[in-house]
Amino acid sequence: QSALTQPASVSGSPGQSITISCTGTSSDVGGYNYVSWYQQHPGKAPKLMIYEVSNRPSGVSNRFSGSKSGNTASLTISGLQAEDEADYYCSSYTSSSRVFGGGTKLTVL
Amino acid sequence: QVQLQESGPGLVKPSQTLSLTCTVSGGSISSGGYYWSWIRQHPGKGLEWIGYIYYSGSTYYNPSLKSRVTISVDTSKNQFSLKLSSVTAADTAVYYCARDSIEEQQLEYWGQGTLVTVSS
What we know:
The structure holds two protein chains of two kinds.
Chain A: E1 9-12, E2 18-23, E3 35-40, E4 47-50, E5 64-69, E6 72-77, E7 86-93, E8 98-100, E9 104-108
Parallel strand pairs in A: 1-9
Antiparallel strand pairs in A: 2-6, 3-4, 3-7, 5-6, 7-8, 7-9
Chain B: E1 3-7, E2 11-12, E3 18-25, E4 34-41, E5 47-53, E6 59-61, E7 69-74, E8 79-84, E9 93-101, E10 107-110, E11 114-118
Parallel strand pairs in B: 2-11
Antiparallel strand pairs in B: 1-3, 3-8, 4-5, 4-9, 5-6, 7-8, 9-10, 9-11
């Protein structure tokens, strides 16, 4: 059960869009439409932002969107805001268990 | 609104067993439809899934930790627990409990996390 692969860091200016990738295998990301994304601010618990690849929980801004192609899922944040600066983690279901990505630090310039 | 709260010692000696409990409020563990999960985060590092339990007692563990992990549930107290044996400094982490939806495979509700330090 290897961790999913995410870029260590991404950055963007306010108002811009960024995309964070999450690469797995056919046994996790590619095999199920059960990719979720979590936002974590320093010292806080993770917060669910996207589930089932592209669904947003109630209360999450529509600036956050998700997609998947093959073994790679992506989180896109449009109209970047200062409050979006955080760590982001992807996660996937895999054979009666769960795996997380290594995390991506988003810096809003 | 479902809430989860971790509790347990913040300091554990090497080779001993780490024990944490998660108390669930605002919803019943026995209602079904969810796995009750433990996840940890080493200082400055990413999230690591430890395992989860269904209210019936069925458990699923991370293969890398399976030999040392036991997750149990007490439906009468609406709690579930984590035991991690033979701990070392490498087990120092913030430990989170969370609710994992079986249908949607998402972790919508998390505890605030508790730091457990392994040190003599």
